[in-house]
Design brief:
By secondary structure, this protein is α/β, with parallel strands linked by helices. Helices cover 35% and strands 20% of the residues. The chain has a three-stranded parallel β-sheet with strand order 7-4-8. A two-stranded antiparallel sheet has the order 1-11. Strands 2-10 form a two-stranded antiparallel sheet. A hairpin with a 2-residue loop joins β5 and β6. It is globular and about 60 Å long.
């Protein structure tokens, strides 16, 4: 967004729901989270979180309750960067961190974060080292074989971008000879075929 030499190629190429991951034997916690998420949406807090972290690209955690008397909720995260989770002044911050902190407070628990590599989160959940995963994780059929997911808490779009000088202006595209693809059109067609339709990223 800040680099004016870059431009997005068209609209979103594909979109995936993101959910919170739970062990398959922990339906109680899953149902608690889904009720909590529904309340966040109805109260307008969820929309405010999306606006602050995603739209305005904020980097400051709000003041949130962190005390609880019903034990500890261990949340697996992966601090890959804002807006979801990042380390800032030796503390975790971001959309996922705020979501986890609010949920722990809602069920009367103290939150403890287990920040680790994204690739190890499902194994940590299945083995019982963490209670749930909130880590910008796409809901996919492959992952659903191992864990259960909450209702989606965010819809992540994926876009392609390039140097603006490589893009084709709409007028030029309309004037192009029929049946002849530009370089950018060819790349987009290949991407859509391999990634969107054939789903080779899986």
């Amino acid at each position: 967004r800040e680099d004016k030499t870059l431009g997005v190629l068209g609209e979103s190429l594909f979109s995936f729901p993101e959910g919170v991951g739970f062990r398959k034997d922990n339906n109680v916690l899953l149902e608690q989270f889904n009720r909590f998420l529904a309340h966040l949406r109805q109260s307008g807090i969820h929309a405010d979180m999306v606006d602050r972290w995603m739209t305005r690209r904020g980097r400051k955690m709000p003041e949130l309750p962190t005390s609880g008397t019903k034990g500890t909720l261990v949340v697996g995260v992966s601090s890959g960067g804002f807006p979801f989770a990042a380390v800032q002044n030796n503390e975790l911050a971001g959309f996922d961190v705020e979501l986890a902190t609010r949920f722990a407070a809602q069920i009367g628990k103290q939150v403890r974060f287990a920040d680790q590599e994204f690739s190890g989160l499902i194994a940590a959940l299945v083995s019982g080292k963490i209670d749930l995963i909130i880590a910008d994780m796409f809901v996919t059929e492959e992952r659903q074989k191992q864990i259960d997911f909450s209702d989606p808490y965010f819809q992540q779009d994926s876009v392609a971008f390039t140097v603006k000088s490589n893009t084709v202006a709409p007028d030029a595209m309309a004037a192009a000879a029929p049946g002849r693809r530009s370089f950018v059109e060819s790349v987009l067609a290949s991407f859509q075929s391999n990634i969107v339709h054939e789903r080779r990223y899986l």
